[in-house]
Amino acid sequence: MRIEERIDLMAKLGAHLLEDKDEFLKALMSRTEFNNQWFTIENQNLAIKAIAEQFLQKEKLQQWVQNYPGIEPKTPQRIGLVLAGNIPMVGFHDVLSVFMAGHQARVKLSSKDAFIMPYLFKTLGEWDERSIPYFKAQQKLEGFDAVIATGSNNSSRYFEAYFGKYPHIIRKNRNAVAVLTGEEDAAELHNLGKDIFRYFGLGCRNVAKLYVPEGYDFDPLLTALHEYRTIVMHSKYKNNFDYNYAMFILNKEPFKANGCILLREDPETTSRIANLNYEYYETLEGVPAMLAARAEQIQCVVAKDGALPTSTLPFGSAQSPGLMDYADGVDTLAFLSGLAD
């Protein structure tokens, strides 16, 4: 298939997903939620809508691939993909990148999200049988020429050992952070809640840590985040909230709470479920250096427009990445386009 045909096929998938009329897909979403209670129907719909709107629009796809001249390979490579399972459909960008680069995806799905992706592969094959060789789900990853693997800091060590001899991208654990100045209004703090709570905070683009000025007044933030209090109606989230709350009390750790999120002072960028770390800064001018010191642990930075001289995202947009928002800042399509024919 030529690149134009691949774009048209993916644009057709985007339109199909936005129609929201695929009853079999809805049944698979129910099966996924039964298999993994973190993947609620609501969160699956959010993920699918974001993919359709941000990734699968023809104009966006065309603009994306224009940045990679000579993207058509002379000989398609087989790309092994080890997909994460922290949030619904999290590996779709890798699958899409492989297809746009003209290679063949050999996909090791996460057991936490094993039903929808194969159905989409089957649907694409029914629409255009030429696409069938481009997508293959495998129980055991084998027969590949290059690898893109996503996992935790622990699993990345195994990935390095298994796949180190192949051309590869291996991703570790990262999180988003937010930089607050104290000048944010109620709407901005409410939007920050989307970056914190969406997908229960399990995504690498979820805000897990705040940088706040010394003397910061947490009350407006806690009030704004309390608007998301219904999240504690989810049993697994509530169990984590209750456990962390109890441990903080038993260990006599100081913390702040509003009924749906726990805040404690901690320099780590990764926080527990239902918990949000924060760290004080002396001056806003010193924050870029603080961020640079943890650059390998930070996926993206959310802040008020103009607050920092470095690149930031608006409040509420962390979980709506575009095609050029590559995980860990590694250009996946450049890697795939550069593989030897």
Low-confidence stretches: none
Numbering strands along the chain, what is their spatial order in the largest sheet? 8-9-10-7-6-11
Structural class: alpha/beta
- Total number of helices: 12
Beta strand %: 15-25%
Alpha-carbon distance between the termini?
Answer: 17 Å
Major sheet description: 6 strands, mixed
Mean pLDDT: 95
**Whole-angstrom Rg:** 21 Å
Listing every helix as H and every strand as E from the N terminus to the C terminus, the arrangement reads HHHHEHEHEEHEEHEHHEEEHEH
Domain unit count: 2
Q: Please state the oligomeric state of the protein chains shown.
A: single chain
Task: Give an overview of the whole structure.
- The chain has a six-stranded mixed β-sheet with strand order 8-9-10-7-6-11, with helices on both faces. It has a five-stranded parallel β-sheet with strand order 3-2-1-4-5, sandwiched between helices.
- It is built from twelve helices and eleven strands.
- The two termini are 17 Å apart.
- It folds into two domains: 3-144, no CATH class; 175-303, Aldehyde Dehydrogenase, Chain A, domain 2 (3-Layer(aba) Sandwich), CATH 3.40.309.10.
- The longest helix has 17 residues, at 3-19.
- With 341 residues, it is an alpha/beta fold.
- The protein has helices at residues 3-19, 23-35, 41-54, 58-65, 92-100, 116-127, 153-163, 186-197, 219-225, 235-250, 287-293, 332-337; strands spanning 78-82, 104-108, 135-137, 146-150, 168-171, 175-179, 207-213, 256-257, 262-265, 275-281, 298-303.
